[in-house]
């Protein structure tokens, strides 16, 4: 049970109670064992102590319980990043609900899919989206819709402000689901990733340890809250260590540079680092107080790695993970961090690189990276066949990433077995976009590829074969796709071709298309 005691006006955590149970909530707020008044989150001119997080998450948990949402049911959260979003996330964990975050950039047609697939008991959305989300919820028999806006508005926020600050955290078994995150797939249908309290907590605790997080750390949090990276790795490590964080609604290079002198850790996708390098404010002096810059979710180029080191004196620590496994490998905190390598397996995590036939590869030979460990998810939501294909007979998750070991046991990611684009740290599956383009009237077929982009790593581009009477140009196609797809998936470039290049088996040769766009 999670409890607070009072000592005078100051709330303190009762340590014995907090350490009981496997609920990630209790394990992640454990960091502030001694003093609830320690500031957990600075958000502009507002700050929130650990006691505030506990109090507010209790309020939200009480409201959710009052709405009839029960442990094990999904709470679909489709909101912009905000402090209230953090309270709600902690409340879901605390109440034993399954937190199902959605990218707020998703369009209604995309949201429909997630509601139908996960059957949540409640959808929380911004007040602006309430009317169409209510209609969608009605279609999928979802009993509750509540609103939470980025500026602290919304019915859920109002109800929470009047709710009790006492809530007993669910004493859960660590194998219970804590979160359901979605990743797209090669078929274009997103798959629900079942993550348990133990999956997340074990990974966070390992990361706190290997990256040397302490209560003295101050993390700059500029990542979205609907992915593994921002939610579990960044927020999870900071709270578990009892550290503080600077909370930004999104990436903002100027704000990050201003915060560097009063911070110690930054976590970001490579685009964060390439953008920071564009600012003259990124200097050695500005980074004096920083102890660690971490990069992940997409390959960090050697060029960015080297330029960052020359400019700041800091060597970016690159690590490797997936939504299904959390983090699996990392360069070391102490010792040499290699450019182009994601380091070695984390303690307790087993990685194999399997070549053709499933045999482990020798050094420097390419194979698929497989992962096993307490961090690995317990399978996709309601997808028996996908689960069988996703794991090897000996229980390793097939990541679909192609990798090599070097002679020192350091891993490099060298490609992908799956047809996937990573743009600014967002995984994008061409199939989903192709299906959407092919539904446009007058499109015969399409092929979507990733092309090199200095800012995003890769950007989405599409080649279309259309009927002779197809009237729309590039802008019209992009505008039409924007109503169907989240902005980050919409091709930045469109070109019209007479036919798609195919091999003798009829398979589209996407590598041959790249030339069309340069
Ligand atoms: C936004 N846009 C993108 C984009 N993000 N386009 C391509 N790729 C992206 N990633 C588009 C918007 O639709 C909009 O288009 C325009 O860019 C400006 O939007 P914005 O919101 O101002 O974007 P910006 O601030 O530039 O965001 C870029 C970014 C952001 C890279 C900072 O996408 C980001 O924070 N990415 C992090 C993703 C992440 O957390 N990944 C972790 C996955 S977990 P328009 O046309 O409307 O103007 C994982 C496991 C692991 O992979 O190991 O970590």
3D structure, described in words:
- A hairpin with a 7-residue loop joins strand 9 (177-183) and strand 10 (191-196).
- With 518 residues, the chain is of the alpha/beta class.
- Helix 11 crosses helix 12 (302-312).
- A nine-stranded mixed β-sheet has the order 4-3-12-11-13-14-15-16-17.
- The protein is 30% helix and 26% strand.
- Malonyl-coenzyme A (MLC) binds at residues 223-224, 227-230, 250-251, 269, 271, 296-297, 321-323, 423-426, 456, 487-488.
Notable features of this structure?
four-stranded parallel beta sheet; about 525 residues; about 25% strand; alpha/beta; binds malonyl-coenzyme A; 16 helices; about 30% helix; Rossmann fold; nine-stranded mixed beta sheet; disordered N terminus; GMP Synthetase, Chain A, domain 3
């Amino acid at each position: 049970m999670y409890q607070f005691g009072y000592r005078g006006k100051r709330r303190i955590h009762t340590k014995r109670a907090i350490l009981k149970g496997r609920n990630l909530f209790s394990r992640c707020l454990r960091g502030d064992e001694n003093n609830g008044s320690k500031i957990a989150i600075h958000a502009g001119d507002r700050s929130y102590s650990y006691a505030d997080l506990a109090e507010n998450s209790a309020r939200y948990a009480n409201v959710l319980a009052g709405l009839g949402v029960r442990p094990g049911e999904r709470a679909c959260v489709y909101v912009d990043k905000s402090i209230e979003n953090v309270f709600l996330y902690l409340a879901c964990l605390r109440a034993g609900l399954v937190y199902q975050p959605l990218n707020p950039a998703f369009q209604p047609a995309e949201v429909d899919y997630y509601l139908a697939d996960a059957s949540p008991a409640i959808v929380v959305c911004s007040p602006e989206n309430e009317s169409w989300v209510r209609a969608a919820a009605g279609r999928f028999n979802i009993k509750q819709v509540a609103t939470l806006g980025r500026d602290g508005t919304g019915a859920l926020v109002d109800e929470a402000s009047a709710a009790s600050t006492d809530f007993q955290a669910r004493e859960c078994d660590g194998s219970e689901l804590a979160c359901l995150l979605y990743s797209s797939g090669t078929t274009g249908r997103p798959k629900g990733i079942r993550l348990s309290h133990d999956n997340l907590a074990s990974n966070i605790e390992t990361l706190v340890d290997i990256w040397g997080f302490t209560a003295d750390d101050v993390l700059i949090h500029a990542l979205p809250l609907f992915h593994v990276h921002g939610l579990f790795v960044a927020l999870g490590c900071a709270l578990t260590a009892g550290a503080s964080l600077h909370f930004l609604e999104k990436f903002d290079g100027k704000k990050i540079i201003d915060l560097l002198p009063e911070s110690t850790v930054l976590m970001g996708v490579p685009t964060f680092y390439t953008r920071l390098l564009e600012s003259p404010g990124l200097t050695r002096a500005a980074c004096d107080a920083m102890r660690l810059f971490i990069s992940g979710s997409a390959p960090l180029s050697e060029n960015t790695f080297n330029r960052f080191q020359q400019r700041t004196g800091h060597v970016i620590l690159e690590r490797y993970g997936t939504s299904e496994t959390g983090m699996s490998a990392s360069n070391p905190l102490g010792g040499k961090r290699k450019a182009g390598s994601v380091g070695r397996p984390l303690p307790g995590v087993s990685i194999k690189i399997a070549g053709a036939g499933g045999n482990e590869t020798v050094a420097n030979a390419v194979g698929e990276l497989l992962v096993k460990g307490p961090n690995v998810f317990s399978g996709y939501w309601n997808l028996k066949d996908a689960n069988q294909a996703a794991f090897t007979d000996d229980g390793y998750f097939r990541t679909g990433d192609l990798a090599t070991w070097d002679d020192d046991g350091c891993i490099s990611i060298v490609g992908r077995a799956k047809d996937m684009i990573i743009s600014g740290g967002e995984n994008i599956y061409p199939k989903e976009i192709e299906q959407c383009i092919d539904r446009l009237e007058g499109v015969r077929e399409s092929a979507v590829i990733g092309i090199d982009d200095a800012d995003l790593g890769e950007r989405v581009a599409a080649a279309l074969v259309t009927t002779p009477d197809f009237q729309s140009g590039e802008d019209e196609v992009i505008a039409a796709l924007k109503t169907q797809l989240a902005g980050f998936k919409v091709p930045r470039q469109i070109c019209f071709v007479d036919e798609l290049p195919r091999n003798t088996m009829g398979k589209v040769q996407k590598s041959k298309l790249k030339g069309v766009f340069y």
